[in-house]
Amino acid sequence: MKIKVTIIACMLIVLGGWVYASSSVAAEPYNLGVDLAITGTGALYCKDGVDAIKLAVGEINAKGGFMGKHPVKLFIRDSHTKPDIAVREAKDLILRDKVRTILGTYSSACAVAIKPVCKEYKVLHIPAISNSEGITLTHFSPYTYQVVPNSYMQAKAVVLGVAELAKKKGWTNYITIASDYEWGRSTQQNTVELLKKFAPNLKLKKEFWPRLGETQFTSYITAIMAQKPDFVIGSVASKDNVAWMKQAKAYGFFDKIPYPGSLISVSELILQAKTLTRGLIGLCRAPFFAHLDVPMMANFVKNFRAKYNRYPSDWAVMEYDAVYALKQGIDKAGSIDSDKVKDALKGATIDTTRGKLFFRKIDNQLSCSSYIGVVSDDPKYPFPIYHDLVEVKGPDSWRPEAEILDARSKEK
Amino acid sequence: MDASMIFAQFMSGLSRGMMLFLIASGLSLIFGVMNILNFAHAALWLVGAYFCYTFWYLMQGTALGLWLSIILAAIALAAVGWIIEVVLIRRVYNRELSEQLLLTYALVLVIDDLIKIVWGVEDKLIERPPVVADPVFIFGAPLDSYFVFVIIVGFGVAIGLWWFLKKTRYGHIIRASVYSREMVSALGIPIPRIYTGVFAMGIFIAGLAGAIQAPVGSITLGMDMAVIIQAFCVVVIGGLGSLLGTFVASLVVGEVYAFSILFWPEGALVLIFIVTALVLIIRPWGLFGTPVRT
Asked: Which residues in chain A are closer than 8 Å to B141, comparing Cβ atoms?
């Protein structure tokens, strides 16, 4: 009898030990890929994005990882802002590093290029910087979730403001200048189409398409000034935008021609703090100062500043949100399986630094806002921010579902 | 469209052309004298921009900070060029063009990584001093005052190079070595030293061009790859090795680009490549080059 009791007791101890061990040892790590432009045209935006991802991953790992048991392992790759390299790196991340999600991307051309790769390998893809509408509009991938206001949403936000201004000021014609690649083309096209709808009296005089990576805009500046348009709408990307703004200012361009609603992100506000023309009406995607009342944003800004000794840009905000969107998808799914997470995120409402937002079911686009404001100095910051900020909500600016279905029905 | 705006367009084309000339002249000089096609020329140009940033950063707030930085950056890069010639380039003088290209392309990769290590991947921005912050008006046409400086430097370098090669003893030796290295050697003049000097001079001009480019926009990795293509277009149109050709081709490319933006913006870049292709077909040695050189 004694022997039997001893054996049972030993078995219970061994079994208990095994159960304890299996519950306390960390489960499978979660390999998270990042495919961003560490170098090339997009480096200005992506450095902040990568830093924000590292911050978010650090916070999550401090609590044991996803679901408290899957430590997140980061694999960061440089797309060089080139679609072919972005695809190569995405494949390598998937096949060699076995990542379950790829965060990124810059540029939109890279996002469009890696979308089918992620779909083929059933890997989640969360673009947080590149925002061409084409990423989610056509050739839809259920694995792609966009946490940045897309080019249509941004264009509509600009158009609503510009149409109002045109009416007030009696503007009749305009010129566009946009970087000659996926995002620039998509944004310009959406802006022009929407202006036709909301301000049919406005006439597009001319379009300018500087190549991505242009360093000297003088010929564009003088050519635009020669046309004497009532206003100009610009969609110039990243470091090209810095060069464009700097050179246009040196020509007195902004004193002569209104330039409403061009992309001036927090990166540009910080980088050109001393030189940026005050009073410009600019557009941005996720300015931290618009949501400091949201505890998640306040914490993020505090932690980002503590870690990197600078303020976060729009790109940092959105990449940070991308990591937490993924986390909430995993929590909701109760699994790290990409198919289950994908299903869990469908239509899900999530907490972000920009408040509670939801993914629209038809295109997995987050209901995030676009922001328009006047570039102004603010005593609280060592760089100008936006005053008179207007927040155009996602559901007020995104493309109607009927048009999405129509566009998809015409897909080849 | 009034005449002053056409003139403004001409001036913007001129400034673009001068910027291209500054980049391409060093490339052309090195090829013309040494027969080395330096693929790393634009990468070194980019290093010149970063050098300028560093010197400017150290001298921020001083009245002559930017101007001194431009000169110091060019000198520092010339020193780098000197070392590269002695350590690497000298060893491939008599090798095939493909091997020279391979070596200089490897240099591009090394330089890119070194830039990442030294300066990081963040964009760098140089603030212009107030004297070149506002536009100037020439015959009523607006022009970025900094580009007036670019145009002056471009013409200065062109005249300086012409004077140096045509009017000085050292220039005569360099030109003689183009035609017969053996003869120059036989006269007791050390060819390797001449070549080192020429290479350093070419890189000095690249450094000057990079430093001058630095305050135009932001300084960032990858800028060099966009520039090298147009620089090669210029030397192909002008004729590899011909400084006069490089000068004329720079002006042609700058003005073609500027006026096509005014009248046919979609075709601006295409036109440059069409001109380059036409020259390659009709006159493969370029407008001012020579057909065969041994």
From this structure: 222
